[in-house]
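Minutes, project check-in
Item: structure for the 95-residue chain
Input as provided by the requester:
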Amino acid sequence: MKAARAWHVRPTKYLSSWSRRDRGLAEGLIAYEESLNPVGLPPHVAQDPDRVFEVDEREDQAMKALEVAQEEYQRGGNATPGLRLVVVDRGVRRE
């Protein structure tokens, strides 16, 4: 049922309309994604003592926009219960 929910399909449709192969693939993808560590690596890679890892910096423009907006809301006293700011992709900037 987790796969039906993840794919936004009614459970009855998932069980009756999806082939056994499609259900297996969907469930396998969920199991794989759940096995990844917080940085997106599978255990056999993340726990391999022979691997060398390094950390790199990336500027996430979506997170930057969200953090700026959150700071502005907090400074402005806009603490509305249940209010959640979301990032909306408006496409590439045209100048």
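Outcome recorded: The chain has a mean pLDDT of 92.
No further action items on this chain.
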